[in-house]
């Protein structure tokens, strides 16, 4: 092989190795900061990781909001109408946070099954629902409809 071609080949190989190392570092950094969404049914089923930052969402269950009298601590329950997850949060809640409304919480799932939220996001107007929450509720509704159809078929009516 001609010495000039050999030198160019070595430069190309060096550049490719450098790009591969940079891509590996980038992938590792992004993997550490990923923030996955889990609906309550997946959390109750054990699909959500413990003590790792995740997001969860659904509807705030009616009658579930309990506020502490001496601090900003709030406890409430998030549901997708097939499962419920208790949530604890300490801080100021969004103005539009209310029972029966959509919510997305960020934080960690404890080994006790309680979601310890560090951030609470509520919908910003009466027509909007976060896409993750909307998709989770649609899946739950479809699952319930399929179970109802199967039960109806098995009873022969």
Please give a handful of descriptors for the protein shown.
157 residues; alpha+beta; OB fold (Dihydrolipoamide Acetyltransferase, E2P); 2 domains; 7 strands; 38% helix
SS summary, helix count: 3
- CATH-level-4 superfamily name of the largest domain: Nucleic acid-binding proteins
Task: Count every beta strand, where a strand is a DSSP E run of 2 or more residues.
Answer: 7
Low-confidence stretches: none
Written overview of the protein:
This protein folds into two domains: 1-31; 37-155, OB fold (Dihydrolipoamide Acetyltransferase, E2P) (Beta Barrel), CATH 2.40.50. Helices cover 38% and strands 27% of the residues. Strand 4 and strand 5 form a beta hairpin. It is built from three helices and seven strands, in the order H-E-H-E-E-E-E-E-E-H. With 157 residues, it is an alpha+beta fold. The protein is elongated and about 80 Å long. The mean pLDDT is 86. It has a five-stranded mixed beta barrel.
